[in-house]
Predict the structure.
Amino acid sequence: MDYVGATPGRSDVGRSQLLGADRCEGPGAGNCGSLLLAGPLIPERRHCHDLGLVPPLCQPFGESLDNAFHTARARPVVLGELQNTHGLQSNAAPDIFVPVRVMILAPEPPSRGVLHAAVALGVEPIVARSHGQPETDGLVRYERVSARGDSSDPQDLRWSRKALRTLLRDVRPHLLHIVGDPWTPTAETGASAARDLKIPYVLVGTSSVGSPSGITSRWQAKRVRDGAAGLAGSVRSALDHLQAGVVEPVPGAVIPLRGPEMPARLAARPVPHSPVFAVVGRVVRERGIDVLIDALIEVHGDWRLRIIGTGPEQEKLEARAQTVGLSSRIEWMGGLPREALTEMWPEIDVLIAPSRVTSSWVEPTGSVVLDGMAHAVPAVVSNSGALPDVVAGAGMIIEEGDREALSRALQGLVSTPARCRVLGNAARQRVVEHYGDGPIAERMVAWWRQVLATATRSGVSIVS
């Protein structure tokens, strides 16, 4: 789903509305008075009182854009009209660009490709990171903020409040972009610093289940969430979880944290005579492999199943396969490193993910499914967690735990194996169009644009 819209209580905003920018033409073109995100040019610094004096771009679109802009298929993004301190629009405006500065605070920042695509859309990203030295990569700035703990564990990483506040005071971003659930130290520290300096912040949640324990922790998480100028989820289920109980709607969006690595070239896949199905992941109850084995009892014809991974349920599942007479068709591959899995994708015709929700687990990102789709492997998934949002119309989605529906879906692919290639091509195309660096940046910048426009209409000052 390519979702950028309002939270409950507001109508959704279409992608074309968010990314399309009206052109100024005619004699009055110099009087449009909008803040424009466009082009990789950095003008001299302007005070926030001058922002209302900046007109949108009035020249032909392509004349001011470099190759990176075209590569990202970007268009100018208009943040909405801003007023000066007197509440008036000026009739005399200088022809300059004002890039919007966004500081990003995340345990793992967006990829460089996403950041460069955001630059092409008129954003000046400043990335806070807990390791490495300060550096610049084109127009992307990386700044060191001291922290302790493991950056791979959001609950363990703790940023220095003093260092973060100092950096925010120095760079004065228009917006602080925080990645982390509201009960994580990253979100709490970032929100606190932003409140102190009166900088609007947005929050990207990553969990679809769970909440903090304890009255104080819940109060703190609610304060962080309710103070955000915008809420997003890394997948739709994470956004729904983050928005639950929101009283004052704010702009919402689904912003994938990262897309899969796209192979540059794929060898042509022949139509399989005997489809090879695969399940990838830990062999645990949540993966629904028991449902798959029971479903395969009713799938007639020539097929094979590879189970890639290990886990506590393997012995019981092997016994079940033996009991129903399928053990000769199932190959237990064990755990494989990512490199070996990459080499195996061409041998897999269909990836199956019949995951089920439990009280403590929901399919978080669908990253393995995305990896397979990037290699033109079609997916048959349950409507659990992130999976339906990832696959959408480029695969087959069944009701969680519905053995009969899963049997019918797989039987159709065995009976008509040419469908594997059709669905595989659609899967890869979906990854290219929705999970590449350019599309992720477009969605993120469109959301930032909506947040800042909403803040401006609400009378929230935007620093500069």
Summary: Confidence is low (pLDDT under 50) at residues 1-97. The chain has two domains: 1-258+438-464, 276-434.
